[in-house]
Amino acid sequence: MATLHLVPIHLSQALLQPLCARLERSLRIEVLVRRPGFDPEDTFDASRGQYNSRKLLAKLLDEPVGGGRVMGVAGVDLFVPVLTYVFGEAQLDGRAAVVSSYRLDNAIYGLPLDPKLLHERLVKEAVHEMGHTYGLVHCHTHKCVMRSSTYVEEIDLKDEGFCPDCRQWVDGRSG
Ligand SMILES: [Zn+2]
Ligand SMILES: [Zn+2]
Q1: Whole-prediction pTM value?
Q2: What DSSP designation does 106 have?
Q3: Which of 25, 86, 101, 122 has the least C-beta neighbours within 10 A?
Q4: Which residues make beta-bridge pairs with 27?
Q5: Using one digit for the tens of pLDDT, what is the confidence trace for 27-69?
């Protein structure tokens, strides 16, 4: 069975444990948690007050996880140089991905806290980024988790699962 190594980066334990179970079910993959073997602060950009997701991906790829996949799960805000922020990023058809819970939290929009909604958004974005590592590009099927999302409202419209076409692709590529 294929293995996914989850690397928490300033992430609350309350978000991490349920995420493992949901990813195991959605992706039919073994999920293990490992502490980062690098200093996440090396990817912090002080002028932006955010963490550079490109640099995080490079560090994650250096983690000694054999041939398994590796995904950073950050509680802090991520950016790529050309964008204000990203919910996550992945290597297309590669081994590494990173997601952030930071902008999935109602708190930063001045809305009432909703831990269940936050958790659901994080699962969807984690499954989405993992889909990219299986070589999936963005999908236009209604509710497919591989639809592109720029705003949390768009994440809320998606399911946490793949549409039948994307599912078939992932099943053909896993292992
Ligand atoms: Zn995407
Ligand atoms: Zn799809």
Answers
A1: 0.95
A2: G
A3: 25
A4: none
A5: 989 999 999 999 999 999 999 999 999 999 999 999 999 889 9
Tell how far the Cα of 2 is from the centroid of ligand 2, in angstroms: 22
Asked if residue 90 lies in contact with residue 129, where contact means CB atoms within 8 angstroms, the answer is yes
Q: What is the CATH number of domain 3-173?
A: 3.40.390.10
Residues with CB under 5 A from ligand 2 (ion): 139, 141, 144, 146, 163, 166
Kindly give the distance from the C-alpha atom of residue 161 to the centroid of ligand 2, in angstroms, as a whole number. 9
Residue pLDDT, tens place only, 111-164: 999 999 999 999 999 999 999 999 999 999 999 999 999 999 999 999 999 999
Report residue 134: phi and psi, to 5°.
Answer: -85, 0
- Of 129, 153, 154, 160, which one is the catalytic site residue? 129
